[in-house]
Amino acid sequence: MLTTARNFSSAVALLSSRHVIALHDDDLAGFLTPALTTVALPVKELGIQAVELALDMAAEGEPRRVVVPRSPHLIERASTAAVR
User: 22 and 37 in contact (C-beta within 8 Å)?
Assistant: First the structure.
């Protein structure tokens, strides 16, 4: 589907009255128009904990709750604006 300049302008106008936030930051988010605000997750730490838990359970360990100490953080870009 081709996006015309008119459709693009309409989409940008709609976004100017909305706040759009994505979960998981990606390099592409900064290149979009408007640039997409994201929540960055500590994916490396989450992955490490997931593999360690899976290995423990494969060795007949007990399931346990895992808490990753690093919190997600907001990367503010143009897809959100100040609350009016």
Answer: yes
DSSP secondary structure letter of residue 16: H
Residue 22, both tokens: 């994505």
CA distance 55 to 6: 54
Q: Which two tokens stand for residue 71?
A: 């919190």
Q: What is the pTM of this model?
A: 0.62
pLDDT tens digit string along 66-82?
888 889 999 999 888 76
Per-residue tokens: 5? 């300049």
Assigned domain for 44 exists: yes
Residue 48 belongs to some domain of the structure: yes
Tell me if 64 is assigned to some domain: yes
